[in-house]
Sequence to fold (436 residues):
Amino acid sequence: MSSSVPTSSVERPRLPSELRNLRAESLDADANPDDVGELNLDEATQLTVDPAVPPNVEEELVVDRLPPFPVPWRNPLKCIAWIVRTLFGLASLTLLLAISAAVPLVNFWVLGYFLDVTGRIGRTGKLRAAFPLLGLAPRFGSILLGTWLCVLPLRLISGAASDAVLIDPNGRAAAGWQFASKAASWLMVAHLCMALARGGALSCFIRPIKNFRWLRARWRDRDYWERASTAIGQFLTGLNAKAYYSIGWRGFVGTFAWLIIPSALYVSLHDPSKPGQIITMLVGGFSLWLTLMWAPLLQARFAAENRLGAFRELKTARELFCRAPFAWLFAIVLTYVFALPLYLFKALSPPQDAMWFITIIFVVSIFPTKVALGWAYQRSMRRPDRAWWPWRILCRTLLMAIVGIYVFILFFTPAIGEHGRRVVFEHHALLLPVPF
Fold:
């Protein structure tokens, strides 16, 4: 679909080359972002986009993709294998995101992944674009599963050695079990290194003899380090760490810049007997209420266009809402409804090694909201005109009421949160999807 700027009936028709030049000028990321926002809002009908040619975005990063879905009545076994692989990939992807979200600084990669999901759907409108890295995730799952299977015998041997030491510290049995534990540990480390060097497939972890033959062949050809670094490098490159970190950091900064001042004012009440603090708290609550209504739209626009200047285009965000008010109402309400129960997990701070398990709940709860925001953005960009004004008023009124209830409940979260007033600044629905 090629985008164009509407012309009046008295203007001459524009040539295709002129339309392309006009679009390039209006969406040039090197230009002043303020100029872009003004150009889009001179007239309501000028807010258009070409999803096939995303502006200023290196679209659709190259990742390992799942093969096409086979025809069930022609290849039933392949169809079953495809379903099993996809389900295993979804579980592995969820686990990968949960473990990454539990690690400080690495969780910005998870935020970048979520923003990329919103951006992909916002540009293409296709649900299958909502699962980047799904083709790569089964390899991560096979590495975890294979490592766990290999470590399991070590745990059994180590437990037997500990029991033997408790029963007879100086006996021959204790010495034998300790020697077996050390020998098994070194052998298992070598086995895991060879399995990872071969690519980390599940079969690599359960065939040690083939791994040894592969190592012998690599030693003979003197290309072990080259093969190992290539296999590991391809996996790490497929994670798109640099791109997701960039999107995550900029998305965090842009969203947090809108939320920090209203949040700080909202939690400024320390002494209810002082009218000044009460007024400041009410001003902060009102500001946070307005901010939370439009922050999801600004974040979705940033994710779709990959421009930090999109966070300054509030008029454009309001125009987007007018194009598809019901879609935005559904997406924003879903975002905050799914966010409220997650504050209960902030009541206690679990141990660091158990943090990844709780982040699974955060990932599963937040992911659908990012899909919904991208879907709403795509619908608003495809509609050339505003919705009927009574529908706009109805949706905006409902949104104001629901976000107002959310802000009211948010006032009491410091009382149950383990981090106190800091809980209000976290905004896991829009910022980092972590319980701390």
User: Anything to note?
Assistant: The chain is about 70% helix and 0% strand.
